[in-house]
User: Fold these one by one.
Assistant:
Number 1:
Amino acid sequence: MWKTVLRRVLIMIPQLIILSILVFFLAKMMPGDPFTGQINPNTDPKQLEALKRAAGLYDPAPVQYARWVGNIFKGDLGTSYIQHVPVTSLIADRALNTFWLSLLTTIISYSISIPLGVIAGKHQDEWQDQAVQIFNYVTFAIPAFVFYILGIWLFCFLLGWFPISGSVSPNASGFWGTLGSQLYHIIFPAILSAVITTTGIVQYLRTGIVDNKVEDYVRTAHSKGVPENVVFNKHILRNSLLPIASSFGTVITGLLSGSMIIETVFSYPGMGKLFLDSIQQRDYTTLTALILIFGFLTLLGNLLSDIIMSIVDPRIRIK
Amino acid sequence: MAKEIIEVKNLKVHYPIRSGFWNRITDYVRAVDDISITINEGETYGLIGESGSGKSTTGKAIVGVEPVTSGSIMYKGVDITKSKSRHRLNYNKDVQMIFQDSLSSLNPRKRIEDIIAEPIRNFENLTTDQERDRVQELLDIVGMPSDSIYKYPHEFSGGQRQRIGVARAVATNPRLVVADEPTSALDLSVQAQVLNFMKHIQQQYNIAYLFISHDLGVVKHMSENLAIMHRGRLVEIGSREDIYQHPMHIYTKRLLSAIPQVDVEHRDEHKKHRQEVEQEFQNDQSKWYDKDGRVFPLKHVSDNHLVALPEKEIIEEETNDKEGA
Amino acid sequence: MEKQSDLLLDIQHLHTAYRLNGKFYDAADDINLTLKRNEILSIVGESGCGKSTIASSIIGLYDHKNTKVTGDILYNELNLVGLNESLFDKIRGNKIGMIFQDPLASLNPLMRVGDQVAETLYYHTDMDEKERHARVIELFNQVGMPKPEETYAMYPFELSGGLRQRVVIAMAVACKPEIIIADEPTTALDVTIQAQILDLLEDIQKQSQSGIILITHDLGVVAETADEVAVMYGGQIVEKADVKTIFEHPLHPYTRSLLNSMPQSEDEEEDLHVIQGTVPSLQNMPRKGDRFAARIPWIPASAHEENPVMHEVEPGHWVRCTCWKTFHFQDEVSGE
């Protein structure tokens, strides 16, 4: 088991190298350099040339790449062209915000979708199932931003229950006050984005239950005299949760990379909004750093999925 | 009189087993391990084995859909284990296959006409009318009504689909048809029908069959010569009489004794005999297999009858027995 | 004290109908059968004849929305038809054990096989966990599992087909049921394994003095193991007798045709017997007259009863319809 995990981690190394090379050349192809925005129109072009040379911008690509990678290992992802602060510090604040919002979203999303999936699967083709299906179609079909804006209009404008934007109120003070304010700010975006992300899980679970219900081993369990509700919980539900457990790895990726739309709509300072902002502002250093991080997280998420899968499913448990 | 159509020599199909930290090849699954058989023109050659014995892999290797590790398959004097020579000889036209599962082996979105015509289109240039006539003729041979051509596979029963599979397999006038458990999924009375059609077609067109099956009763009915396969190797080759009347290898005996007999009068004796053979198999296994559990190489006991006898002659009496019979 | 009656199961006028396009069609049509202690009753027939329907009706496992079961299935004066589910759960696995065709599919892929056997004990005995474990090991020994302790903790995919079926059998007999229903228990197995599993079933039956209902399409299996045989065609029993009579003096045209189509004939050059036509689907099954008549068209209509019923032609030998008296194969001269 540990051998396999270690091997999988080792396989990630070449993947990461390829990823970093791609990101590096992507960054090279983008217009601008570290001096963009720092210079005023009066700067002597010759002086600028000298500065660039000193910064190594005319070195051969492999040398630049090696330096770039070396910097990453030192925790230096470059300096933002726009904000003129290290990208790492820019990301650090946002990552934490995103983490809390996504965590809450995930918890709410699972607490809605698992019961819904169970109801739909259990009462296949009955009215309960049809109600869940309608809910599913609506949340699947409605564009996220329309849904969010409708939500804001209804609950923030008309009812005034929740704040419209931000991550914490400026006048919040003290540990508990700040925490309370933070929670107050993220609970509503979390609910909204949770509701709209239930579709996949509900559908997976429903299909899993419907398929497993007619499996031979369920009939065997019945033939042993196992009561109906136990057959459902112990045999059908447990086996149907398998694909959901394995998708959890990618969910964790999502926890850290955030959602561009919800963060933008709520002006919530997270990773997703940062990504969108850096595109709009052509902040290429931040952008490449984010792409690198997202790529790394995706690889990590896949690894986690595989590990989770091998824990929950003995058939693919690796020796 | 009997002209050979295909000669399999020392065929091996091995799959690598990977393990360890670096996932290196540490061993091989010897799915087919050094087997040689000769199939004559127009005959039915039975290949018997239990699940996992390698019989289906052998069939696939002969048709050319399973990469061969080593050995040769000679057809018209040419080794066809290389795809280039298969192409040159039109081998894929001359050798066809019938599968066990007729539903999954027929394209569900195609009509019967197209399913049967497909191999013809690959190898022959016929006009639409000629092609339709040919399909009608083929359906007629397997006893299907002429309006079948407009239907889809799911509109037929299992036995009818299997007959369509037979019609498709013989569409190109093949010399050899590899039939992999063609009737295992069918009911008894339907199986009878399919087997009868297979026999009629064979007589009419002089087709050779490699009949792969686990059912010794069916193989007995169909084939003149047969081979018994176990753990990827052949344990016994011989004529129907050699195998069914004078089996020599313990595995063959065990297999034969395990067939349920429709003889209620003697069922207790039969059961006793079966358990004795099973006991003998369990006790004497080490004698009949080498130290790695592999079947010994085949030895001639008569011109046609080959048995995987142990190195030492421990079964002399049985050989004598046979000669006496 | 429990009364040790010899009659385990008395099935009377059982009709099991499935709903297809809003209508109910009898898949098992007026079934009358009895199962005695120490008896192996075999129900034999081709696919779709209704043999498995009888099994699922006895054990009460069917889609209750789309299935209608009427008639009586009497077990110790208790009628299993329409029995309340929680009462039925006390009988299933406890008094009636069931063995299915595909041992891999019939085991939960994510549960250790030992735990799956122990689950039966959990619901029907008051053993504690340790006792259940010990009993499972004992059962594994009884069904000839080579390494019972190691096997306990294994998952179904780690076992061979034969060993999986032994697990399923251990599960079915864990509570020493009086009735064992085996639905095609050896169809998915190799012939040598089949022989071992059938021997095992016979041994268990002898030890526990239970009655076994063996459902199969394989006439060889029937001839080797059954005591009593019921032959089914089109949802009905067409012939019923002891095993010797069925194979040595079959009377019903269907039984005779089926036996004839076995590839066992001495003369290999001869064609196998083919039954004309095909089995009609459930919806198209004629509900009046002899259901097999259409497949023996050379027998005049007058030979069939208008409404064929079972006749006891000899003590214990029942045959449906009177057409057997004049039946002959097409290539035989009539009247033999």
Note: The mean pLDDT of chain A is 83.
Number 2:
Amino acid sequence: MSNRQVAMVIDLNKCIGCQTCTVACKTSWTSGEGQEGMWWNQVNTAPGHGTPKDWEKMGGGFKGGEPQKGVRPAQGDFGEGFELNYKEALFEGAGNEALKPIGDEPQWGTNWDEDVGAGDYPNSYFFYIPRICNHCTKPACMEACPRGAISKREEDGIVVIDEDHCRGLRFCQSACPYKEIYYNHVTGHAQKCVFCLPRIEQGVATACSRQCPGRVRFLGFLEDEDGPIHKLVNVHKVALGLHPEYETEPNVFYIPPLSPEKFDDDGNPTGEDRIPLEYLESLFGPEVGPALERIKQGRADKQAGRPSDLMDTLISKNFLDLFGPFTNHPREIERIATELEREPVIVPPSIEIAYRGPGGSSQ
Amino acid sequence: MRSVKVTAIADYAATTAAGWHQIFAETVEMVPAPVEMQPNGFIQANWQDRPYGQLTSLKAQSVHDGTSIAVRLRWASEKPETGGREGFPDGAAIAFPITGEPVLWTMGTEDEPVQFIQWQAMKNKIRSVVAWGIGSSVPGSPVSESVTAGWSQGYWTIVMLRTLAGGPEAATLQPGTETQIGFAVWNGSNEERAGIKAVSVDWSPLTIEA
């Protein structure tokens, strides 16, 4: 058990699906060999097949405390990595060359069904749902590993895979109900989101959170009563874990999406929600209805000029209020790393990878 | 089974070496490693209704020349599986007790470790590992090892060689004594790996001729 738990709240009412978080993660963590089709952060469209394809039908997790059977996703379910012919299409084709993948035509990718959603016009609907490893309180992956290669850090509850002990057996992939673990076929290891732990250790927010232009992601320790996570999860009770029925107690929480109204045949709003409550309950459990009501009440309070701590927290006028104790600027870490290099002291490779991007990236 | 004393071990390094025809081939009964002994509930849940370790027997032979020992294994395998990019390879292992009388199926104990020499179809080499219980295997003391392997007409045949001399994490094999040997086989095309395998019912006595 960890002493305290770092956690994230993702506000689905603010996510615009721009994938900046996805790219921030990709460039920070998964640009190595064997990681071409690896996206530790995804922003999927819901309803949809998700990443990996149809992961919600793949099992794993617990039921009544008992480990459940699970499918091990193949790389094809996540989607293979592929390159586009940028050079030919954008620089050499003189407008005659279309932008297309190089090599075999891809059949699936991490965001293949983006913006498809569900429902019929004019009452179609969708929303975006960013996903990372949930750094669960009861990690099924950790329990499933016969090598003891997966652990939950005492100091912050981040779940990590020790590649010195991992033998690529991939029982973890079957056990994780969120299917957030990839297999690197080059190194022979299971790999997944590390919650940007070298950043967290130095008080800097995760790359996906810091780079989000929509201020969608809140960070902090679950136990920190003054922090945004505790407020949203435990005080206002508007942030919910995804698929609580998997019983792993995820530590990424979601502000569920409010719904636009339906239109009738004459194009008039009907007052009914376009996103079926049953669908949201299938994602976030039975508490989603009351949570939505509390968010609506907060909005109404604000519109009426009444105070709403909930809405003030969600709006987060001050950018750094999003990040709890992780408000250090990424630049600070870069400077520390550089100074260490000058000493000269060996900089841990994880820090170099995360913070020293081309042109002094401040992700 | 007996490890027969021969003059030159090199004559037996090939799986098809003529000398093996003169060496008695012991039939070893194999069974699935029990699902109850798998190390956690997830592995048990995934495999309790799924057949694995279906190999019922293998043939084992052995020779030594006073310095090195060769063990030749032959077992039925519908098709060779190297695992490719994402799959799991066919594999086999022989086991020796390093000290005491460890239980084979639990891969030894804290006080009584077991040495495994493991072969995987995707690799051209074998590796020596030591285990003090399920899931505890780590690379063992360096022992000079080599392997030849071939699949033909529905059978894998492999010859594993190692020095008789051992170390703190590798069993010492002494001519003129009797030790024990155990066996495991993984069917890669059935995603068998780790404890999901066919194992010999128990140790077999191994007499190393003087």
Note: Residues 6-328 of chain A form a domain with the Alpha-Beta Plaits fold (CATH 3.30.70.20).
Number 3:
Amino acid sequence: MNWGAIWATAGAVIAALLAGIGSAIGVGITGQASAGVVSENPDLSGKCLLLQLLPGTQGIYGLLIAIVIMSNSGLMGDAAKLAALEANTALGVRFFLAGLPIAFGGLLSALYQGKVAVAGINMVAKKPTESGKGMVMAIMVETYAVLSLLISFLLVNSIL
Amino acid sequence: MIVSMKRLSLVALKSDQDAILNALQEAGTVEIIKLADGDVQSGDADTVNARIQRLAESINAVKPYAKKPGFLSPQKREMKLSDMREYVPKAEQTTNEIEELTHTQARLLSEREKAVSTREALEPWEAMTVPMDTVKNTPRVHYFIGLLASKDVERVREQEYLEAEFMNESATVPTILACKEDDTRIVQNFLKTVEWQDYVFPKLPGTPREAIESLNRRIAEIDGEYDAAQKELEARGETIETLQNALDAETIDADRLSANNDLSYTAHAFVLEGWVRDDEVEKTEQAIKNVTEAYSFEVRDPVEGEEPPSVVKNNRFVKPFEEVQTLYSRPTYGTIDGTPYMTPFYILLFGLMLSDTGYGILLMLGTLLYIKKKKPTGMSAGISRVLFWGGLSTIVWGVLCGSFFGITKTSASTIEVGGVFSQISMFFEKLGIFPALLDPMQNSMVMLGLCFGLGVLHIVAGYIVGAIDRFSKGDWKSAIFDQISWVLITLGLVVGFLPAIAGMAGMSVTLPKSVTMPALIAAGVGALMVVLFKGREKRNILKRMMSGLGGLYDVTSVLADILSYARLFALGIATGVIGQVFNMLCGMLASASNPVMKIVGAIGSIVLLVLLHTFNVAINALGAFVHCARLQYVEFYGKFYESGGKEFRPLSYNTKHVQVTK
């Protein structure tokens, strides 16, 4: 068993998987709220779409970390790196741990950002001119996904 | 800069009222303050508002059938007000027609629904061979018509005083029962013991089957009529411009008419109170002078207790950024407008979050095209210009960090699309400017440090703006003890501990003691100022010190503010790495060994590259816009800005579809 490669793969998987789930739920609930508002007032679809997009970024961050893990660990076909990984289980575990911040940070921040964005969409329904404030409220939650992304990225980059 | 406002009192003759309000609305300079208690409600405004409501509904009804405006056609058409008014009678007629059509459709729909449900209820009775109206009570015989559960069929058969006919053998059997008039009560009681549901035949001639056929014919007829009405409605799609022009003309009138309710009146004169911008007082008076000579026009400064609306004025370059500020909140009247101070930082930080020359070019060209062709007004006009300058900054940061559509010096050598990427990369190498500063992927800690450095600059600038504002108001104590002290603390700590901080990040920065010592001393002086003077209004020395020490605790929030700038770096790599990933995926697609697949892959990858990079620039520009805005609102404005100003809403041409020209 090549535990090094398995751990590294698990790191890429958990980053893309959990952050992706979070974004899927976040974008899903905001999409439902948008549809409700747009059915009453189709002119607001643009503003609702912008709010709906916001919880989608975590999935992209997860994808990003997954790909950086795959490329840095040699899973994408760099034979020398892969050999080093297979010879050293600890290296693989480090890749796995590096994937955790964006996995959980992304999952939970996307969930809550989605809820805030839903509230923002309801606000747009009542006061269309205030959509900017709704976006700023949602972006406050995103901060922590960005910080998770940063730490995951720095950790992955620190493994050579 | 916040524009100073004047309180206007205008008295003029009632006979000139309409003309004066017209002139003021055209000038668009006066926000009228409500004076009367609203008991002089004029009926005119109500009727106009009702017409507006109907016009808006008609527009919504025909909107799906109207020609869509071109993607790049201007947001509003230009037209004179008098020309707009000419559309009103025609629009009135069209509105009537559209309402008639939509009413007809609603009536047809409900009739159809009724017919369908009657038919569905009749369908079980199809087997009945006699006309429905023959089944009715006579003096001797009583009929029961209804649906019987199939399990009870046998029990009904067993009753000797009943004559039963079952129409079919489904779960609920359509049944007609007949009995002698005298047995009616017995049968009714019996039916309570079985599962029986009464049914009444619809008042239609013939057998159920004939009735169903006639209903089907009627439904087909209704469908035909509905389609005809629909065609008529679709043909009205081309009238949408007429309706929109009329709507805007009526809205202008409604705004002016409702302003009548805000005035107060004497027998022959009216009084108008309102707010005017200081720099528009003359324009306003001129507008009235053009109408009449008989008026009294007085302006004065706002007094204590009045809350004038808050308007900011800036040069052409800074003006678009007012929209970013308005998204947060207008400044309180009499405080400071943050826009000119925020603008350079906004541009600087926005670019860093995208930092890709290719994306910057895309953003600049895109917004330029939008501004030139679409001629946006209001908020989208501001935002598109903000993005334009952000695009320029993105180009510059792209050169500094060495990225062009995700192609960097390091990425191009490993990933290929037909040799193009390495060509581009080599071209940049020859130019020797890519990256001009540093590659964030290679030197991530240096880049992170740069982001924090910009953050320190931004935060200190916020304190300094606050200090200048307070000095100019004569509040030197607050300027020095609440603002300058924090400049000293922040800068002092950062400079003093720079070697140590850099050491933690694995870099060696050496500063001579002659620099770090004074910096730390400055920080100490700042801290001392906070401890001693934060609670300067408190007499009790102990309470004063406590409040000062509590104030010093704010150093943690300054630290959190600085760390918040890590997002600059994180969003920058997010854009860059996603761009690289897209290039890599398309590179794989184009690298098949089979020559046919290679051509297919190359074409596919080019299409994909365009789509994916457009997606990437769109989503990351949105992210950069809001994250950059947040850095201004929380980290920068938190140091000096007083939010909560009231919007200035002058009586003016407030239109949706038409830009009114003279």
Note: The CA atoms of residues 5 and 125 of chain A lie 50 Å apart.
Number 4:
Amino acid sequence: MNRIRKTALSAVLAAGASFGLAAPMQAEEIKFGLLQDFTAVYTFVTGEYNQGQRDYLTLINEEGGVEGHTFTAIVRDTGNQPQRGIEAYNRAKEEGAILFDFLSTPVSAAILDQANADQRVVITPAHGRGDASDGTVFPYIFPAMATYWAQAANLIDHIKQHDGGLDGKKIAIVHIDSPFGREPLPILDELAGQEGFEYRAFPYASPGNEQSAAWSEVRRYRPDHVLIWGAGGGQAVSVRTAIQNGIAPEQIYSVIWLAETDAANVGPQMTGVKRFEASASGTDHPIIQRIQEKVIEPGKGAGDAANVGTSYYNLGVATMAISVEAARLALEDGGPLTGETLKAGFERVADYDAEGLMPAVTFSEQDHQGGGAGRVSQWDGSAWVPVSDWHAAFPEIVRAEIEESAAHYGSGN
Amino acid sequence: MFYRLSGTYHTTYESDRKLWKIPADRWQVIAVLVLAVAAPFLVSPLYLGSYVLPWVIWSAAALSLTLLMGMAGQLHFGFAAVMAIGAYSSIHLVRFGVPFEIALILSGLIAAGIGTVFGAAALRVKGLYLVMATLAMQYLVDWVVVNVPAISGGAHATLRTPAVSFLFVDVSSLASRYWLALGWAVLLTLFFLNVKRTSFGRALVAIRDKDFAAAVIGVDPFRTKMMAFFTSSFMGGVTGAILAYCYYRAVTPEQFGFDVSIQLVAMVLVGGLGSVIGSYLGAGFVLLAPIFLTNFIAGMAGAGWIPVSQNFLSHLPLIIYGAMIIGFLLFEPLGLAKIYDNIRKYFLVWPFRHAKS
């Protein structure tokens, strides 16, 4: 008798438990594939960036998700190898991921067409093809932040507005000898004609551990300003070699890839160097504060707490803030969340600035860059201090470049 | 017992010259071939597209390289560049209007031509010095591809493969791309197995073992070395084109970088120099082991077994992978092919202990 009662009781309990679980189970788990390069080329950024992405998703889950839906990050290392990226993409796709971030140009390039065919959203913030900003040619690819073209335009605009104008000035661009390094050149060509400055490009060989040959030529060129266009360890080498060649830190402007680690590597002489940024750094932002309070302090962070607030950490937070906002808008429309509805959600994002963490972005069916705004900040010896406001510079020139290149892609390349 | 050697006598030259003399071996090969051909119906698209297809193509690449490194003994550390030449020329040729079938052969010839020019260094230098010469080829080809937009495909250096058909069959679905790649790998395998028994194959082996001794017995080192580079580069060039059309379908310079060359050398070494089955096993190991290990470790971490940071989690598979390579090479320096051979010899006479050779 006792045993029967026990069995009945446990059956009732089990039924109750499953019933109780059934209600939240209806809210789906939204899966994002963060299949990035933790071990090869992009290691300088991936650790902090990915940590920021996952901490933001944890924050959203801690705050109850989006209408009860929670987010899961599928994280895998691809080692920057296309064939491993393809495997990871296919697997995560089978597991139900609807959004991907590879943070690797070769891997993104290998997946672009497949993702468009599979109707899965791929965000390519600060990497990948700039022309994917043309949503008519790349329906499922979202650069989602200022492309390298927009970054170059923004830096040039800063020189024009704040650092003595452009007319008759000489600008040197010292870049890594790769497609990425050469990317800003067409924008500079265009702007040089329009604004009346001259520029010259000085390539150095990848990976950029040794750049003295390029910089001694730069010294002979006597530029008024220098843009440095590289990534990873080569950036610190650029700044150090520039200063050795008599270029003042204030004359140096960097692409987005210059962060706290590089400043630590260069040392105190880095003070004064400027860079483009697509998201604010530091912990003094509402979202970062909430991450500190609800994710880091309870011990749910995805990595070293010291990384919170670094440039790349906040960049990762910003990418996921945009993605979660898109998912929220897509769910608002009702219906299940698929790659297709998530794309529509992205295209409804308007004037979203992640509570001030980044410039307001607005996507449309045509514009997957979100406006291409950013700002310039300057290293003051301990932190990056913004020296301009969030704005998009020369948007029509950047857009023309995007459309021309996208049309080229549409015709086969 | 398994191989049933008793009663198998080769009484004619034809039967003694067969590629697989023992019926059991023949049946194994037929079974593997049937499974390989039927793979699109047997495995899910995930496994076909991300595991089997790249494995078949890289095996073909390893076969091409092992002809040069294993049979002819000429080290080549720039083989990815040879494949790049094949991939880029095939795409540009098809865009120019050349039919795909002819473009494949022409791209192989172009790769063979350029590969032979760099191979000419082998006439003067050997060993590590030849490694340097072929490394130079890798970097030169990389540099040219990256710096000539007409080759690489413009600002973003991505070249998409045009839609093609092979012998009137449209090569766009996953299965058709797989069968084309498989056909090429089978062709290379048959070529490789047969070339070992030709005068050319024996000349290659003679050159490998001692080139001036080969010259003494009447093998022309100049001609043989050039032919080795030409043949191997032709095979590598077509494999590069197959890799572009059947697998990546959008070619970027990184797909043929220096690290890919090293991976190819690793495939050949881990598999076993100059061995056909070694090429398949080596390619499978180098290509798939990191993927399996990454998924396995991620699965364990997901189940909460190893609570560590993502950074360590990503490097752990590499640590294990490195240890496995060292382990295999310590356990059997002649590679995975020799391990297979040991197992086969054990079962050849099982339940008895000793095989003849």
Note: The radius of gyration of chain B is 21 Å.
